[in-house]
Design a protein that fits this description.
This protein has 280 residues and is of the alpha+beta class. It is 28% helix and 28% strand. The chain has an 8-stranded mixed sheet with strand order 7-8-9-10-11-6-12-13. A 6-stranded antiparallel sheet has the order 4-5-3-2-1-14.
């Protein structure tokens, strides 16, 4: 697969190409399910934005490979704040928000310790060990940090680790802040402020990571919201909730009538309309 005849997909809608490898995952022989995880590798002249726009997220801190995932993005040129967005923006009005290139960010021991403590509490012990945080901060996957401070005291409120390729892509990757009963709103307020910030900066999309669980649905509080369903970007949140809340037992999604109802077509007609093409 790594030879010169490796399959390549080209997207009519996003105008780029990504070379592919298919990494085999656990099969279910009894139900004829032979899954592969789709890894993408940029072609010469392509940039990470091409991968993001095709539904891929970085698969390593070095950004030397990408993987196709169910991810979310906000089309910033169409975003209109909801009443809930405005409520959170009022809370965030007490924060100063600064976009800082990674090389200029003061990565102090105190901040590092606070981030690791947050990660241990939020994600669980061992999910974000110091070594992983170092790989992120020292790799191209983090280009900038969106840093929030209290306007009155100057104290740190929180920091979002981000990848930017202006003006096409802003990726809100990891966010760190103090977790207390009084400050649990801060995480959503930071994300909402980021949507507003990058809208004003003229970015096309803000990517918000993956959505595979009920817990991740909080990210859908922006209108419009798009998610990648494996074939295209969709704005149907009922479809997303169906994917999150159901597991197709013993069959593929494209064999599931409930999922196909959201697509308004058969697998053959969906393939006909697909932006993906393979070339050898």
């Amino acid at each position: 697969m790594a030879s010169s005849i490796a399959p390549r997909i080209s997207g009519r809608e996003w105008g780029g190409s990504v070379k592919l490898l298919f990494s085999e995952a656990a099969p279910d022989y009894g139900h004829y399910l032979y899954p592969y995880v789709v890894w993408g590798f940029l072609e010469p002249g392509e940039t990470p934005a091409n991968a993001f726009e095709a539904g891929f997220l970085p698969g390593s801190p070095a950004m030397d490979r990408f993987y196709l995932v169910r991810q979310l993005r906000v089309p910033l040129r169409e975003w209109e704040s909801t009443s809930e967005n405005r409520r959170l923006l009022r809370k965030a009005d007490a924060f100063d928000c600064e976009l800082i290139p990674r090389a200029q960010f003061q990565d102090t021991p105190e901040r590092r310790a606070a981030w690791l403590a947050y990660a241990a509490e939020k994600f669980g012990p061992g999910v974000m060990p110091p070594e992983r945080l170092d790989r992120l901060m020292n790799g191209p996957i983090i280009s900038h940090l969106l840093h929030f401070t209290d306007r009155k005291t100057g104290a740190d409120v929180g920091t979002a680790l981000m990848f930017l390729q202006s003006p096409r892509v802003a990726w809100y990757y990891y966010a760190f802040y103090r977790l207390t009963p009084e400050t649990r709103y801060v995480g959503m307020a930071m994300m909402t402020r980021a949507v507003e910030f990058f809208t004003h900066e003229g970015f096309h999309h803000l990517h918000l990571g993956t959505c595979y669980s009920e817990r991740a649905l909080y990210k859908t509080q922006f209108e419009p919201m798009e998610f990648f369903n494996g074939m295209r970007w969709s704005r149907n949140l009922d479809e997303l909730k169906h994917l999150v809340r159901t597991t197709p037992e013993g069959r593929h999604r494209l064999e599931e009538p409930e999922f196909l109802a959201f697509q308004s077509g058969t697998p053959a007609s969906i393939a006909e309309a697909s932006p993906f093409r393979s070339a050898r």
